[in-house]
């Protein structure tokens, strides 16, 4: 990861906010966090079983979600893994998956810092 570039582009979050306010942004972040375990599990299981098609699909999904939220480093890493799985290039795939999983954690933390109130803040009646 580049120390001079943020994990999440604040302009991308501002763009989502301009389209649907904090409610849309909160829902997008919540959906990202909700689907992350399923996608990362699919990556790990696909790799363990040698199912590169599953790895490719999971990496593609992560890449798309990351792109929607302006998480460019995660999008880039997921794209590298997607390409490696699509071409059957298993060399270094374990380390690509490990790097991607770490980037997922860091990106989720960055999203929480940039939008700490989360989607529930716009819901009334909760205690």
Tell me what the structure shows.
The chain is mostly helical. The chain has one domain (13-116): Four Helix Bundle (Hemerythrin (Met), subunit A). Helices cover 76% and strands 0% of the residues. It has four helices and no strands. It has helices at residues 10-49, 52-69, 72-87, 93-114. Helix 1 (10-49) packs antiparallel against helix 2, helix 1 packs antiparallel against helix 4 (93-114) and helix 2 packs antiparallel against helix 3 (72-87). The radius of gyration is 15 Å and the shape is elongated. The termini are far apart. 31% of the residues are buried. The model is unreliable at 119-127 (pLDDT under 50).
Number of strands: 0
| Rg calc | 15 Å
Average the pLDDT over all residues and give the rounded result: 87
- Which outline best applies? elongated
Helix content: over 70%
Q: What count of domains describes the coordinates?
A: 1
Structural class by SSE content: mainly alpha
How is the CATH topology named?
Answer: Four Helix Bundle (Hemerythrin (Met), subunit A)
* Number of helices, where a helix is a run of at least 4 consecutive DSSP H or I residues: 4
Give the full name of the CATH homologous superfamily.
HPT domain
End-to-end distance:
39 Å
Name of the level-1 CATH class: Mainly Alpha
Order of helices and strands: HHHH
Pick out the low-confidence regions. 119-127
Examine the secondary-structure arrangement and name the CATH architecture.
Up-down Bundle
- Beta-strand percentage? under 5%
Largest sheet: none
């Amino acid at each position: 990861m580049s120390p001079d570039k943020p994990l999440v582009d604040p302009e991308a979050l501002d763009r989502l906010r301009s389209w649907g306010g904090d409610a849309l942004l909160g829902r997008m972040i919540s959906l990202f966090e909700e689907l992350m375990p399923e996608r990362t599990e699919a990556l790990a299981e696909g790799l363990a079983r040698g199912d590169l098609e599953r790895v490719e699909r999971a990496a593609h999904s992560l890449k798309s979600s990351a792109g929607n939220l302006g998480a460019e480093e995660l999008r880039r890493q997921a794209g590298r893994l997607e390409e490696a799985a699509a071409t059957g290039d298993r060399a270094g795939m374990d380390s690509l998956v490990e790097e991607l999983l770490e980037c997922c954690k860091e990106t989720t933390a960055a999203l929480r810092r940039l939008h700490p109130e989360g989607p529930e803040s716009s819901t009334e009646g909760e205690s």
